[in-house]
Amino acid sequence: MPLQFYNTLTRKKEKFSPINQGEVRVYTCGPTVYDYAHIGNLRAYVFADILERTLKYAGYEVKRVMNITDIGHLSSDADSGEDKMTKGLLREGKELTLPNMRELAEFYAEKFKDDLRALNVEIPKNIYYASDYVKEDVELVKKLEEKGYTYKTGDGIYFDTSKMPDYGILWGAARNREESKSRIAENSEKKNPEDFALWKFNSELGFKSPWGRGFPGWHIECSAMGMKFLGEQFDIHTGGIDLIPTHHTNEIAQSECATDKKPFVKFWLHSEFVDTGSEKMSKSKGNFLKLESLANKNISPLTYRFWLLMANYHTKMNFVWEALEGAETALKRLYGLYLGLGSEIGNIHGEYRNKFKEYLEDDLDTPRALALLWDVAKDENMSAADKKATILDFDKVLGLGFENLKEEEIPEKIKKLAEEREDARKTKNFKKSDDLRKEVNSLGYEIEDSTLGYKINKI
Ligand code: AMP
Ligand code: ZN
């Protein structure tokens, strides 16, 4: 089966092939760094990581670029409300200056990278701060101005969506135009409700431009950086589903109008949300779940990754603590099975590998890939060494950290108690056997019985 992804642009699963043979160029919308990332945000990056790893597993070179939004993102996607970075500075009692804004951004960008490392997400080599590329934003806006796509209002330079007949193709605007309009706050000076800011004036704080001091629009940043580092046309663009109707729709509009309708991106891939129900999960509302909040409840970052992979990236996930606890137990069980395989590494099982590749290449079907991982771990017809090789191979994509697992030394005392318990069990002294099992548990270990004998695990 060929490599295929669901493309938001065409609303169907399509066979994927890159524009340049052998090399895939991917742009990922990065975080707005005015606060810590919440666990919902992190899903978007675990998803992009699985995509990159799958492409590499399929034999492609991957050039991935990610931006850090450190300027220009307002609290509403529709160019109104407070600037998020300003909000961050005010919250932390810092003076509103560009250097302070950058300092704040760098602090939270580093925290974000720490989260990615903990989640075993390969951090793209090409991560760029939007504030370093304002010149490129200005150039792009100038191009649009020359081509007649812009107009000026009291608060900025706007893109005139009525000049682009197929505006909103990603959003399905033909169908949803009314819905789209109703979502966007009215700004009386805008010619059309969907028109969006390319440059916002700010006489006190901001960057110089031909139109006056201010900030680039959030959307223009991603077009300018995508084009600078990946070219006017590239293969894949990723982000969460909330970016479809405005941010990505507007990226397409301004990029394609600036390049005389060259299709900007071939495949648009979007990951669904993590819904926390009663637990708040919006950075702008404060009080949200971070990776650290999970660690405080003994849920490791890799368990969170494992839990995310249990669902397809198109499926909305409901965060409930019990589900995460279940995932923690399941992952530990997998680790235990792996650690029981000894130190020898054999050969990757060809049939399993083919299936694994097939599942992932079918629009990143991680739930099926995980089910296959369990099949391998439990396959009684495979040698331990071959299982180990196959699991390590799968983990190149899954990234669950098998490679770094180390067998924990079981203390002699525990081993002795377990031996005594085994003897008691064999001689049908069940009372003694049960007492010894409890004693082992009280010391932080458990005895797991199987057809092959028993195994001691740390609880
Ligand atoms: P932001 O830092 O707000 O620019 O968002 C970073 C990424 O997180 C974007 O790709 C969003 O689409 C995504 N995102 C935001 N909220 C959630 C959520 N609750 N669940 C999953 N992804 C989200
Ligand atoms: Zn973006």
UniProtKB/TrEMBL annotation:
Choose one Gene Ontology CC annotation of this protein and give it.
cytosol
In chain numbering, motif 'KMSKS' region lies across: 280-284
**Ranges for domain Cysteinyl-tRNA synthetase class Ia DALR:** 355-410
Q: Where is this motif: 'HIGH' region?
A: 31-41
Q: Which UniProt keywords apply?
A: Aminoacyl-tRNA synthetase, ATP-binding, Cytoplasm, Ligase, Metal-binding, Nucleotide-binding, Protein biosynthesis, Zinc
Protein's name according to its UniProt entry: Cysteine--tRNA ligase
- Kindly give the SUPFAM superfamilies that the UniProt entry links to this protein: Anticodon-binding domain of a subclass of class I aminoacyl-tRNA synthetases, Nucleotidylyl transferase
- Give me the comment on cofactor binding: Binds 1 zinc ion per subunit.
In this chain, Zn(2+) is annotated as bound at 29, 222, 247, 251
Q: Which reaction does it catalyse?
A: tRNA(Cys) + L-cysteine + ATP = L-cysteinyl-tRNA(Cys) + AMP + diphosphate
Q: Name one GO biological process term.
A: cysteinyl-tRNA aminoacylation
Q: Name one GO molecular function term.
A: cysteine-tRNA ligase activity
Give the UniProt subcellular location, in the record's own words.
Cytoplasm
Main localisation, per the record?
Answer: cytoplasm
Question: Where do the annotations place ATP binding?
Answer: 283
